[in-house]
Specification:
Blueprint: H1 2-10, E1 27-30, H2 32-35, H3 51-63, E2 73-75, H4 103-111, E3 116-122, H5 138-147, E4 152-156, H6 165-178, E5 184-187, H7 189-196, H8 203-209, E6 212-214, H9 223-235, E7 249-251, H10 264-276, E8 281-283, H11 292-298, H12 301-307, E9 316-320, E10 325-331, E11 337-343, E12 351-356, E13 368-372, E14 377-382, E15 387-392, E16 396-404
Parallel strand pairs: 1-2, 1-8, 2-3, 3-4, 4-5, 5-6, 6-7
Antiparallel strand pairs: 9-10, 10-11, 11-16, 12-15, 13-14, 13-16
Helix pairs in contact: 5-6, 6-8, 10-11, 10-12
Length: 405
């Protein structure tokens, strides 16, 4: 039964968006969770939404090694806009005080450093924060983004009618493709249809349109938020994992590793689970002041390799001991596997979990070599029926890679 599940998940639809982008989960940095909509640059010069902030983050991505392990996108979110469109051309304009050099200058800054610029707009008449939206202007806005040499567009859904989204989001994708510039398309479409309006989501249509799509609530800087997202993916509403794979990815939202709300162990758990879920990896943290331990988690090449595995298969939750260990399995290339043992217990002492690979439904008759992923530590060779015991810290994870013998 387990092999049938993995096979079904791996057969992602061929009728998908075909712009050659996001063949593995995109990686980068996104402003929203950490910096929100701070626009008072006089009081908060280092944390307001401004060209300085994004250039600072770009500099840190390059100088501190993030770019070299895969974090390439620098993404603007809401609140970058002027309050009105240009009264002659109708074009969007960045806030002139906070982005005095303009968006083309900002994209040039990224490209010269081997990075890419992402930008934000909204399907509705205004963005979530009340800035001009793309309703009635989608073709013009797509062309404007292409002229600015933007590399990614995040398209939100505030202040719009969900019944129009099945037409509007594909229309924006059409206009983006029409420009001739490849721009990765990040959609908030299913988030509004399912979570906000409690309607059934057509993930086939979303997969045809978008390179990545949000389908659950915004992450916040808390363990309760992170674990609720993991649980949602474990429940796998509407089978959306079937549609996630090279070219198009389900997006559980940003990494909050290095921010204020998670312990080190919880940060480790988010990093591991986002890797298992083949999630886009977008950090939202102040890279100028990040704790070295958080930085090491974000740059762990062994965990990133699981996230970036070319098969692009999203992990499935095998089972869960209520209030304790949740076991997840992800198929990797060359017959390898990844297993995550997530401890949801917060009672203060590690949980020792004992199992065998046979009990988990694995079938390689010769057994597996087992390596702990974060430290790349070889744990031994195990037959199918041999017990393996793992000590999992509270609200943390043990992540292992299996290679068939």
């Amino acid at each position: 039964m387990l092999l049938l599940v993995l096979l079904a998940v791996s057969l992602s639809p061929s009728h998908s968006l075909d712009n050659g982008l996001a063949l593995t989960p995109p990686m980068g940095w996104l402003a929203w969770e950490r910096f929100r909509c701070v626009t008072d640059c006089k009081t908060f010069p280092d944390s307001c939404i401004s060209e300085k902030l994004f250039k600072d983050m770009a500099d840190r991505l390059v100088a501190d090694g993030y770019r070299d392990v895969g974090y390439k996108y620098v993404n603007i979110d809401d609140c970058w806009l002027a309050k009105q469109r240009d009264n002659v051309t109708g074009k969007l304009m960045p806030d002139p005080d906070r982005f005095p050099s303009g968006m083309k200058n900002l994209s040039d800054y990224m490209h010269k450093r081997g990075l890419m610029l992402g930008i934000y707009e909204d399907f509705g008449h205004s963005t979530c924060a009340g800035y001009p939206g793309s309703e009635f202007y989608m073709e013009l806005d797509a062309q404007t983004f292409a002229e600015w040499e933007v590399d990614m567009v995040k398209f939100d859904g505030c202040n719009s009618d969900t019944s129009d989204m099945a037409y509007g989001f594909p229309a924006m994708g059409f206009f983006m493709n029409k420009t001739g510039r490849n721009m990765l398309y990040s959609c908030e479409w299913p988030l509004y249809v399912e979570v906000a309006s409690h309607q059934k989501v057509d993930y086939g249509a979303i997969r045809k349109t978008c390179n990545m799509w949000r389908n659950y609530e915004d992450v916040t800087d808390s363990w309760a938020s992170v674990i609720s997202i993991i649980d949602y993916y474990g429940d796998n509403h509407d089978g959306f994992s079937y549609y996630s794979g090279p070219g198009g990815w389900a997006d559980p939202d940003m990494l909050v590793v290095g921010d204020f709300g998670l312990s080190y162990y919880q940060q480790k758990a988010q990093m591991a689970m986002w890797a298992m879920l083949a999630s886009p990896l977008f950090m939202s943290v102040d890279l100028r002041t990040i704790d070295p331990m958080a930085k090491a988690l974000l740059q762990n090449i062994n965990v990133i390799a699981i996230n970036q595995d070319p098969l692009g298969i999203q992990a499935v939750r095998l089972f869960e001991v209520p209030g304790s260990i949740s076991v997840w399995l992800k198929a990797l290339q060359k017959g390898n596997l990844a297993l995550a043992f997530l401890n949801k217990d917060d009672q203060g002492t590690p949980t020792v979990f004992t199992t065998s690979f046979k009990d988990l439904g694995l079938t390689n008759q010769n057994g597996y070599n087992v390596t702990e992923v974060f430290d790349n530590k070889f744990m031994g060779s195990f037959s199918l029926s041999q017990n393996i015991s793992l000590s999992v810290d509270p609200t943390s994870v043990v992540l292992v890679r299996l290679a068939p013998l």
